[in-house]
Write a structure and sequence with these properties.
It is a single chain. The protein is of the alpha/beta class. The chain has ten helices and eleven strands. The chain has helices at residues 12-40, 48-62, 77-89, 135-144, 169-172, 174-184, 203-226, 280-307, 349-354, 371-388; strands spanning 65-69, 93-99, 118-121, 127-131, 155-162, 189-194, 234-239, 249-251, 260-266, 331-337, 358-363. A nine-stranded mixed beta sheet has the order 3-4-2-1-5-6-7-11-8. A two-stranded antiparallel ribbon has the order 9-10. Helix 3 crosses helix 7, helix 4 (135-144) packs parallel to helix 6 and helix 7 packs across helix 10. The model is unreliable at 1-15, 38-57, 270-289 and 303-318 (pLDDT under 50).
């Protein structure tokens, strides 16, 4: 191959010099390349390490991919303990795509027409990213092929969430929505939650919850690889408050259980972000004081109208109204309060959970699970757990 320089009106001597320089450099590069080939040619004694490293990479690529997400956020200990356990198994290539912050009550919401920031995260033994979005955003992005080199993991696990998601709570739950999004994309999935109780549960309970659900995860992956895992549903796994004293796994049905929503008015200073929450009594007291001020203002206005007919009635301070040119800012806080449940069927999710069982509820994209799907789920769960025992 010859090297030439086009004469773009350069002096002939300069062109000749450039040609010589380029030819000499080409010769040097070829000589260095030959030496490099000789030096990198493995001897019989040095051949083992590169080959061994190649085998390790090949084994890693051959492992089934498990995707983990959650609703509590990537720094949640429930997710950390689960990922660590999966990595220790040494059987899976574990990838994590989870919300950057707590999105446990985000439901099946997605972020549309906004840019989502994604950053790498450090979780030993796993490839992890934190996403400034919802659990559904995380699963959808991970399965799109835009973030990871693969687009179809063998299983998507959403959890472990801190707090149960029985009954109607499934519709509010971000962790359940993550598993549901995987099912929409035709990927087997499960959502896992611990029945966390304030002032009773400890962080170590989340680690115990991992040990409880790991056999179910192992059985699911084994049967997915064999083609024996039934389709058309995902599993919602609810672990009792004391995981290690559970009474075993129990196939359950979704109940109508729902906490009662309670909206409380809250106060804030000039900076709403620094606002503090009030008790019911404080809220009621402020409301009564406001009514008293409004009543006084209305009475004074009536007296003024009697004396001066030109006063406009719109200027009177009426309860709940203010100057139309000024925005009204109010602040409220939602809390869910438990209420008595009348459903007594022992096969319902929350009943089994209260009785100390690990409740396993198959859920589909239809409002009600079809009989064939219910039967297939029951058969698989029974056979899978029997094989693990």
């Amino acid at each position: 191959m010859t090297t030439s320089v086009k004469n773009n009106f350069l002096p002939p001597n300069l062109v000749s010099n450039l040609q010589e320089v380029l030819i000499s450099r080409k010769g040097d590069e070829q000589e260095q390349s030959d030496k490099s080939d000789e030096s990198t040619e493995p001897s019989s004694a040095a051949a083992a390490p590169p080959n061994a490293e190649g085998v390790n990479l090949e084994n890693e690529c051959s492992k089934p991919v498990v995707l983990v997400t959650n609703g509590d956020g990537i720094e949640s200990p429930g997710l950390t303990y689960l990922v660590e356990a999966l990595v220790r198994e040494g059987l899976y290539s574990v990838h994590v795509c989870a919300p950057k912050s707590d999105k446990s009550l985000s439901g099946h919401s997605v972020t549309l027409r906004e840019t989502i920031a994604v950053s790498s995260a450090e979780i030993s033994g796993a490839t992890a990213y934190e996403v400034a979005g919802t659990p559904v955003d995380c699963v959808s992005l991970a399965l799109s092929g835009a973030l990871f080199s693969w687009s179809k993991p063998i299983l998507v696990i959403s959890g472990i969430n801190r707090g149960s998601n029985c009954g109607h709570h499934m519709f509010y739950s971000g962790v359940v929505a993550g598993a549901r999004e995987a099912l929409i994309c035709d990927i087997p999935s499960m959502a896992i939650s611990l029945n966390w109780k304030k002032d009773e549960s400890r962080e170590s309970d989340l680690k115990d919850a991992v040990s409880v659900c790991l056999p179910l995860i192992t059985a699911a992956i084994r049967d997915i690889e064999k083609g024996n895992f039934p389709k058309g549903f995902f599993l919602n796994v609810e672990i009792p408050t004391s995981p290690l004293t559970n009474k075993g796994f129990k196939l359950t049905k979704q109940s109508m259980w729902r906490s009662r929503p309670s909206w409380q008015a809250v106060s804030a200073n000039r900076h709403p972000s620094a606002g503090h929450f009030m008790s019911n009594q404080q809220s009621l007291g402020i409301q009564l004081a406001q009514l008293s001020r409004d009543a006084s203002a209305a009475g004074a206005a009536r007296r003024l109208i009697t004396q001066r007919k030109t006063v406009e009635i719109e200027s009177i301070g009426v309860a709940g109204k203010t100057d139309s040119k000024r925005p009204v800012n109010k602040y409220f806080r939602l809390e869910f309060l438990d209420k008595e449940q009348e459903e007594m069927d022992e096969d319902l999710d929350y009943r089994a959970l209260e009785n100390g069982f690990v409740a396993v509820t198959p859920l589909s994209l239809h409002p009600y699970l079809e009989p064939d799907t219910q039967a297939a789920a029951k058969e698989w769960i029974s056979s899978a757990l029997n094989m693990e025992q």
